[in-house]
Structures are given as structure tokens and as C-alpha cells.
Amino acid sequence: MVNLGLLALQLALMVACAPLVQGAIKASKAGWQNRRGPGLAQAWWDIAKWLGRESVVSQHASWVYRWAPPLYLGAMLAAAGLVPTLAVAPPLAPLGDALTVVGLFALARFALALAALDTASNFGGMGTARELMFAALVEPALLLGLFAVAVPFGTTDFATLTAGASLDVAHLLAAGCLFIAAIAETGRIPVDNPDTHLELTMAHEGMILEYSGRPLGMLFLGAHLRQLTLLSLLVALFLPAGAAADSSPASLALGVAAWLVKVTLVGLLMGLVESNYAKRRIFKAPELLGTAGVLGLLAVVAGAAGGVH
Amino acid sequence: MALLLAGVLAALALPRLPQAPYLLTLGGGLALAGAAGWSLTAAPVRLDLGAVAPFARLLLRLDGLAAFFLLGIAGLTAAVSVYALGYVDRRHYGEPVVGAAFCAFVAAMAGVVLADGVFSFLLCWELMSLASFLLVMHDHQQAAVRRAGFIYIAMTHAGAAFLVAAFLLLAAATGSLTFDGFRSPAPGLDDLTRNGAFLLFLVGFAAKAGAIPLHVWLPRAHPVAPSHVSALMSGVMVKTALYALLRVAADLLAPGPEGWGWLVLAMGAVSAVLGVLYALMERDLKRMLAYSTVENVGIVLLGIGGYLVLAARGMGGPAGLALAAALFHALNHTAFKGLLFLGAGAVQRAAGTRDMERLGGLIRTMPWTAGCFLVGAAAIAAIPPLNGFASEWLTMQALLQVLAGTENPVVLALGAAAVGALALTGGLAALCFVRAFGVPFLGVPRSPEAAHTTEAPLAMRTGMGLLAAACLLLGLQPEVVTRPARQVAATLLPQGSLAGAVTVPAGVYVPLGVAVALGLLAVLAAATVRLLWGAVGERVTAPWVCGVVLEPRMQYSGAALAKPIRLVFQRLLSPERLAERRYHQAPYFVAEIHYEGRLRAVYESALYRPVVALLVRASVQVRQLQSGSLRLYLAYIFATLVVVLVATR
Question: Which positions 76-115 of A are in contact with B (Cβ < 8 Å)?
Fold first, then answer.
């Protein structure tokens, strides 16, 4: 059965930390670019401001547009409960596995894409076309990366995968593959630029351009949660050191601390990539994503043929 | 069955009551569904309808595998019949021949899955093809429809020729014309006969299932039929071919070598990816759905291929999982593709067009149709917690088992490629169905016809609602299907190989739990925000479009939504475009732009045209035999008789 206490703890922690991790990535980018960036909690202040404001809605929008933000946030919360963070076994593990997380991401994207088309504004359509093109190309990389880790164990259950994580060739290849996939999924340079509203380049920002006020706050919180979920997934599969094996307070506290440090480190690495690469042209991105897919394919072959057992 | 045959007579006898045959098919569908549901786990039932000729007995047999597909046929027939009560009237598809052909079509499909001998199988198979051909040709005044019908009948007969050849090969080797007669001596046959028969069957059934490259008839023929017929053709007729492939490869000729499975896996992967790519490029709603049928046939083939590979390795438990994935996805596709075709029919009836670039904003005028279509679109795009995700999840688990059981790098790379293909298919299907729902139903109407649509009548809405409910139910409670599916696997695999291995150490997916968690968390989040920040208002206004007045043409079109994919995959799709500009004053003041974009017909030019050219050349040669003289023809017949008598002595 689902351990409700652990679930509440994990979700509260992730909701609290998701905007902070975003702040840490921004701070690292600012540091690499020799400027003073916004404070660590700025993302939280933004979300808090939006959540308290009225929203302006297109007169052509239907219920699809209004239902999308809570659905998006709900799907991201469920996904956040499905990845291992503080403990080896995620709190929602009895309900779903790694593939379910990928499915919930698809659900959130589907809802947002429809909402973007619902306003009759052309930017929504533009963002949808690009974001879903990236998503379609990321999907093989994401699943092959997960399969590379899963095939030696014959299961997609997170607890088994985390417990058996090691640093052999297959895991290194899969880590590279999933890292690129995570960059694309979080809409970061070199695939997409999270800081732009320039119509020539935006993808994810184009989809949410019409939103304002409370729904926008929900979408941003959801997007930060998605980023943290992906980082936690990377950490759980490739750097499992310190994760709590049981639910005693001491090991949970250690698990929280270890998770925070590891997630921040991977986030800083993303900031480093973002500061040192130029955003690629949209139609150059498929090459990068294809590379990730090939890495994943190699990882599957290496993982099963090399033999972890 | 009797009700269905009565439907044929009723349709012909009661020309003034076009709905009458559909009441009978509704009854027949429900009765057959009940029988199929009961037989899913029961022992096989046999029926001998007697001999038509000394060599031709009408043998029927209802076992678990047949019951599974019969359930899909009967269930969809029942829902489609309800829809047809509102869709068919004297002005639309009310001709007696439509009703009669519809009943015969359903009866023939049921016969195909029940057949237990070569004669009864081929009889029903041909009847199914001919009845559907009649329905495809309904609008035969249009040249495009006649051409579609011609290609359909030509491909169908070419496929049937392969089947006849395969059955004759088996009959010659075993000396029997019943399936039982094939089953027992099959393991003892030599490799050449077994592999040859399998390949002939594969070609014949792939042509009917619409697997690439034998799919060319499908996107032409399915859209031009009346929508309630399109739903059946895409929803269940292609499934009869998948059923027959399973019957042959997993039952009659089993156990086969692992290579059969890899052949089917490769075919499935190619069909899935290319099918969804072509679907994305279509602007005609029903053609788009037809191409997406090619994609889903590919996904089912991945499951079947996985089963054949695992069964050949003797891994009973994982093989059962793979078969469950294939059967589950086949049933799911029946539900959501039927639903989507019915929805497209409702849209076409209301707006007078299937062209999505002329639609838009239908969610306001047709809210029920839109809701049902959205359920179908999300289900087919593999969005949890609906049924499409459940079966694709299971297919992924089956492929995981295929990979986990080997250390051969070549096999691993092939299997990983299949996983990548299935994942890519899922991602592209999401875009395809965001487009298929978003462009016609959301935004503002792109034409006056779309602006003045009205909601479909109650019977049509009920038919769609039933299928939408099925999508939800199958998504939330997959065990209803997967448990009997594993029992079917147990009857096909060698005795005892499934015992103790039913619980494969697979992943976890509890759809009902995920759905409840999702809903509760969404509500909890919204409630917390409201508690902490209070209620806020909402201001409705015109969207900002850079300071000008919004025009419907400014919205992203279906072609624009698919453009990034068209560019990324241009090597595969080979798009062509023709743009002509006419100027007032070159180069700045354009008076008129003519733009035409299409995909080059790769299969037609590379594969079919040489074959057709060869056939035509051969036919010209053969024509020299035909002088028109009756005496010469009699001489031919006599000569043939002599040759046959000498040969069989």
C-alpha cells in the first residue's frame, strides 16, 4: 500500500525545492556569465505573485484551456511521487513504474498542447508544433536510456533499478543519453531557450504565452516540478549513494540531505552546459536528439551483453 | 448469427425502413458478444454445418483466441449499430443494399474468426472482402471512389491468392483441408513447407491488415466508405487478418523458429513509424485515421512478433505477456478507432467536409461529439490513464522481456531498435492527435460551414458515448482483458510451460490508482492554492495578436503543425511543393500565391508500378490465346482436362 506519510513528505519537499533548484541553476548561469543573477528564491516569489492574481483569458478559449493547468500540475505531482528521492523506493511505487512517469509527462504535454491551440492565437500553435516535435524525438532516447538500465534486471520498477545502480559502461552511456533527454525535456539550451520570448526561437514558452495570473503560476510550479523530477530520476539511476533504504527518521534525514546535494550538482551541470553552448537552430536539434537515441541503443546492447550479473 | 442473416433479408425486404437492419445487427452484436465473453475461458465449442461439396465441410470452432476477436467484432458492431440508427436515414445511406451488405459484412467477419477449415475460412474471407467492397463503392459516381474500390479489390484478391497458395501447400503436405488436420502433423513437416507456408500467409494477411508496404489500398478505401462502415473496416476487419496470422503462426504451424517472430517485429516497427508519419501529413480526417490504423496494426504486430520470439525460446510466462499485449492493443484499437471514425462521420455530417483546414471551434457547437473525440484521441495517443497507454505499456514490457532473454548483440540491437520505434511512434501519435483534435475542434471556425454546425442526433451520440466509456473502462481495469488473454496464451503454448511463470517480474502500472492519485493531487493543489491565496477572478477578452484583429486564417493550420516533422523526416517522406507567385510589382507586392504541397508516392513508383507494368505486359502476351472463338475455348478446356488426368494418375 501507499505510505501516505512518506508521500506527503516527499511531495512537500519537492514542491518546496523545485523553484529553489531552478533558482540555483539560474544563479550558476549568472555566475558563469560574470553577472549578479536573481536571488535563489526568486522563482518562488514569482509563482506566489501569479497565484494571487486574476487571469486574462481569450474569448475563444473553452473548458480545455481552463482545465489544463490543474491537470498539468496534478500530473507533475503524481510523477514526483513516482520517482525515488529520499528513499530507494518511491512512495507511489505500488501504483506505477518508470514507464508510468514517462506516460504522465506525455499527459501533461498533451493537455498543455491542446490548451495552446484553444486560444486561437498563432503563437500557441507554433509552440505546440515545436515542443511536440522535440518530444517525439526525445521519447526514443528517454525510453532507450531507461531500458538500458532496466534490461539486466528484467523490470522497470524503480526500487530494483536504484538498488542495482552501478557505474559500468552501460550506465555511463545511459547517463549521457538521459542527460541530453533531460535537457530537451526541460527546454534548455541547446535545444530550447527558457529565457526567451522571441517568436523565432521559443517552443515551450510559446505554448504558455496566453496564460496569466493563477493558471500561469500553476504551470510554472508544474514545470519546475518536472525539472526536479527529471533530475531526481537521473540521480536515482546513476548516483544512488546516500538514499534511505528504510523509513527510519535518521536514514530519511540523511537521504534528504544526500538528494539535495546530488540534485543541485546535476542542476549546476545543466547550468554549465547552458552557459557554454549556443542555442542550436530548431532543425539542428534533431541531430543532438538522434545522438542521444544512438547512445541509448548502445547502452542497451552494452548493458545486456556486457552483463551486470 | 441468425439475426445477422435475418438482417440481410430484412434490409432487402423493407426498403422503406433503412434502420431495420441495424436493429437486427444490434441484437446480433449483443448476442455474439455475450457468447464470446462466455467462451473466453471455456472449452472450445465446435459446430459442423454439413458439407456443401464432398471436399467442403462448413466447420466452425469457438475457442479462446477466436472468442477474443469475436468479442471485438460483436462489441463494435453493437455500438456502431446504435450510431447507425441516427446516421442512416432515407437521404443518407438508406439504400437496401447498404443495410444488406452491412449485415453480410458483419456475419462474414464473425465467420472468419470462427472458421475451422480451409473451405469455411476462405468462403467467409471472400464474402467479407466483397461485402466491404460494395460498401466502399457507395459513392461510385466519383472517379476517386471508383479508383479506390478498384485498388482495394485488386489488392484483396492478390492477397487472397497468396492465402490459397499457402493452404494448398499445407493441404498437399498433410492431405487434409481442416485446421485439425494441419495442427497435429505440423511439427513434423519439413522446413521448406513450413517456412514457405508461413511466408505466403504473412504476405496474404499483411495485405489485409494494411502493413507497410502492402497498405496502399487502406488509406484510399477506408475513408470513402460510409463512416459507420469505416469504423468497422478499420476497427475490426483489419483485426481479422491479425487473428488469422496468430491462428496460423501460433496455433496451426506452431512451434515456429525465432526468425518468424523477428520478421513480424520488423514489419510491425516499420508499419508503426511510417503509418503515424503519413497520418501526420494528412488533412482529411478520415484518411488520417486510416493511416493511423496502419500504425496501430504495426503496434499489434510488435506484440505478436514478441510472442513468436519468446515462444520459440520456450519462455512461457513472458510469451503470455506478449500475447496479452497484442490482444489487448487489438481490442483497444477496435474501441478507439471505431470511436474516432464515428466522430469524424458526425463532423462530416454537420460541416459537410472532412478537411480539417476548413473546420475549427466545433467544441462549442458539438460539445458531446468533441468530448467523445477527445477521449478517443487521448486514448490512441497513449495518454494515461486511458486504454491506449495500458496496452502500449504492456507491449513495452513484452519487448523488455525479449531483450532480457538474450546476450546476442545483433538481437539486442534489433530489439532496442524496436523499442525506439515504438517510443517514436508514441511521441508522433501525440502530435498527430493533438492536431486531429485541436485543429477541427478548438480555436475559431475556419469556414462558414464549420461555424454553422449543430450537434449530432441522440443515437449517434449514444454510439460514440458507449465506445468512449469502453476506452475509459479498458484503461482503468486492464485485468478484465489481460487475464483471459494470458489464459488464451496458455492454450496455445506447449503444456505446462506457462505454469508457475505467470507472474513475470515486470513493472508496475495500476491505472485506477494512478488516475485516483492524479485526480486527488490536482484537486488538492487547486484547493491549497485557493486556501492560501483566496479566490481570484477571470477576465475574458480578445487574444493579443500583435495589435491587429484576429482572423481565423491566423491560427496555426494542420499543415503548419506538422511542418517541423515534415522537415525532420523529409528523407523518408520526400515532400514536394509547388509555389507560384504573381506580382503587382515584383518583388514586393504579391497579388496571388498558388501553393501546392504533397508527398511523393514512393511505394507506387518504386514497388507497385514495376509489378503492374510486368502484369500488363504479361497480360498482353496471354491475350493472344483469347481469340473469342468458342470452339478454341472448348479445346483449351479439353486439353486442360487431359493434362490434369494424366498428372494425377
Answer: 77-78, 81, 92-100, 103-104, 106-107, 109-110, 113-114
